[in-house]
Amino acid sequence: MKRREIIKNLSALPLAGAMLPLESALASQPRRGEPAQPREIDILLKGGHVIDPKNNIDGIMDVAVKDGKIARVERNINSTDVAQTVNATGLYVTPGFIDPHTHVFVGSNNSYADGWPSLSPDAITFKAGITTVVDAGTAGWRNFPLFKRNVIDRSSTRVLSFINIAGGGMTGFPSEEDMNDMSVQMTSNIIRQNSGIIVGVKLGHFSGKEWLPFDRTLETCEIADVPLFLECHLREYPLDEILRRLRKGDIFSHTYCAASDRECVLDENGKLKDSVIQAKNKGVLFDVGHGGAMFHFDIAIPTLAQGLKPDSFGSDLHRSSMNSGMRSMIETMSKFLNMGMSLSEVINVATWSTAQAIKRPDLGNLSVGSDADIAVTGIRRGSFGFVDTRNQRLPGDRRLEAEMTIGAGRIVWDFNGLAARDLQ
Ligand SMILES: [Zn+2]
C-alpha cells in the first residue's frame, strides 16, 4: 500500500483502530473525515511564517494543500471553497523534517533488527514535525525484505534506508564484524530493486583494522550511485584516513563526539583538524548522529565556533536514545538553535539540506506539486535545559515545538487542536 493511502486510511479509522491490522480494519470502516465533495482546497494554512529554503521563501505566506500535494504558496490565498482552514499566525510553516539517522527496525533478543516487535516510527516522528526518516543500516540485504514488509510498508512516516553493507544488518547474526557477509553483489542488487527507498550504504560497528569493509561499501556506493553513510565504532580507522577516503556527498555521522568511539574532529588543543577542514571543502557531509552516547556540547560548541556546522540533524534514534537527552530530532534542532545557529539555518539543515544529502530533491521543500509533507512549528520561550550524552546541561531560552504535522496532505499531528472544532 502506498504511504499516501496508508495515511488516508488511518485518518478514516476511529482512534483505537490504528492498533488493528490495517487491511482488515479498513474493510469494515466508513471513511470518516472525507469531504462530502471535492473542494478547491483541502487544507489552507493561513498567516504562518513560511521558511522554504529550496525556494528562497522566508516570510508570511499562506499554503494550500490539495489531493496530498502542495497546491499554492502565496502571500494571500482567499477561497471560500476550503475544507479545513488553519490559523498559523505566530507559527513557522516549513517542509516536514527529515531525520537521516534512525533505527526503526527494532527487535527483541537484545538486537536491533530481528523484526519483531518493531516500534512504529509514527509513534515518534509526527509529534516532532518529522515526515521522513532514514534507517541507518539496521537492515542489510538479508533482512531488508522483512524490514520493508514490517516497517516501511506499514508506516505513515516515509521510511527510507541506508542499507548496511553487513548482510544481517544490526541483528548480530551474522555480526557487523563479519567481512564474509559484506557482499557488494547482493547489496547492489537490493538497492536496484528498491531504488529511491534505499538511498545509501552504511558502514559501522566494525572494530578491525582492515579496510576491506570500507572498500566494499564504497564499491557498492559507486555501482548504485548513492552516498556512503559512516557510523560509529570504527576505532581502528584513523580519522585522517577515513576523511581522505570519503568522497564528495558521502556522510560522516557522529560529528560532535569526543574521542570515545572514534577520534574527535578537534585536536588536543581544541582546534579543528586540517583533515576535517579539507573533507568539508571536498564536499563530505557532516551529520550530527546524536544518539545515546555520541553528542557532546563541549565538542559541539567549539566545533561550531570554528565553522563546522552540520549538514543534517540525524538523531540516531533508537530504543535507548529516545528517552535520554536526545529525545527526538526536533530537540536536537533546539540545541543547535540555542548554540547560535539561526532558525533559517536550522530549518534548512532539517529539510532541504538533508533532502539533497540523500539525493531525494523531491523532498524537503514546499514547491507546488510536491508531496504535502509540512511541519508547523512554534518556538516556546522560557528557561529550558538541554542535555547531551554525557549528561551535561546546556541552558537555553527557546525550544521548538511541533504544533501540527501534515503527512501526504493529511493532518497527522495537531498538538493544540488548531484544526479541531471549538467546544460548543
Ligand atoms: Zn546509528
What does this structure look like?
The protein has eleven helices and 15 strands. 23% of the residues lie in helices and 26% in strands. By secondary structure, it is α/β, with parallel strands linked by helices. α5 runs parallel beside α6 and α10 crosses α11 (343-357). α7 links the parallel β10 and β11 (251-252). The protein starts with a helix and ends in a 10-residue tail after the last strand. The protein is globular, with a radius of gyration of 21 Å. Zinc ion binds at residues 101, 103, 136, 231, 291, 316.
Could you give the topology of this structure?
Blueprint: H1 3-10, H2 22-28, E1 41-52, E2 57-66, E3 69-74, E4 82-87, E5 92-95, E6 97-102, H3 122-125, E7 130-140, H4 144-150, E8 158-164, H5 184-193, E9 198-203, H6 212-224, E10 228-230, H7 239-245, E11 251-252, H8 274-282, E12 285-286, H9 297-305, H10 329-338, H11 343-357, E13 374-387, E14 393-407, E15 410-414
Parallel strand pairs: 1-4, 1-5, 6-7, 7-8, 8-9, 9-10, 10-11, 11-12
Antiparallel strand pairs: 1-2, 2-3, 5-13, 13-14, 14-15
Helix pairs in contact: 5-6, 7-8, 10-11
The chain binds zinc ion.
Main traits of this protein?
single chain; 424 residues; alpha/beta; seven-stranded parallel sheet; 11 helices; binds zinc ion
State the secondary-structure class: alpha/beta
Put simply, the count of helices is 11
Query: What oligomeric state do the depicted chains represent?
Result: single chain
Fraction of helical residues? 10-25%
Query: Average pLDDT, to the nearest integer?
Result: 90
Ligands, deduplicated? zinc ion
What shape does the CA trace take? Answer: globular
